[in-house]
Amino acid sequence: MQQADTISAIATAAGESGIGIIRMSGSQAIAIADRLFQGAGGKRAAEAPSHQALYGQVVDEAGRTLDEVLCLVMRNPHSYTREDVVELQCHGGSLPLQEILALTYRLGARPAEPGEFTKRAFLNGRLDLTQAQAVMDIIQSKTQASLHMAAGHLTGRFSEKIKGARHNILELIAHLEAAIDFPEDDIDDVVMHAV
To answer: Please, what sign has the CA dihedral across residues 184, 187, 190, 191?
Structure first.
């Protein structure tokens, strides 16, 4: 269920750092990256193999270099959102990040809403609801125990336990309904098992 629009946001925490990441997701992510990225040796984002980084520069509409970057193209459905995703890994200063982000908007992306990348991953079937919540739990983890529990939820272990319990409950309901609807058939009593 690819979204019609392409979103863009700074994916790293606010503040100065060595590296900052701008992430785009949507049907035009690669085309936008292709317009702003000039790869070393003439390599283009549109021709990049999925999940391989290209070195180059981000250049604005006037031909000015904004920063040196690594451009990472992740083609659908093998990305976090199951859409085409591009990450531009640049220097982590506030100005280069803001300039490159604004350029993605001018070229057709729109600002991502908070949590929208994970929302798209959920809507596109990449994550279920417990896994989507686990992403936030991982980000907010303060202890190793909470981190391990959230990571377990992200892998789907919790979802599998819920599915197993749901299956057992549905079997019990079906058995009870059969016993009520057909008392003359002498259906065995329901035996309760720990779920």
So the answer is: positive
Give me the architecture of the 7-126 domain, per CATH: 2-Layer Sandwich (3.30)
Amino acid code (one letter) for 143 = T
Spatial distance between the Cα atoms of 122 and 154, rounded to a whole number of angstroms: 12
Parallel, antiparallel, or unpaired for β 110-111 and 7-10? parallel
pTM as predicted: 0.75
Is the preceding peptide bond at 77 cis, omega within 30 degrees of 0?
yes
Residue type, 35: R
Whether the pLDDT of residue 186 is over 80: the answer is no
CA distance 90 to 104: 14
Distances (CA, A) of 121 to 56, 70, 83, 127, 169: 29, 24, 8, 6, 29
Q: What is the pLDDT of residue 195?
A: 47
Domain positions in the chain: 7-126, 132-185
Dump pLDDT digits (tens) for 146-175: 777 777 777 766 667 777 777 788 888 887
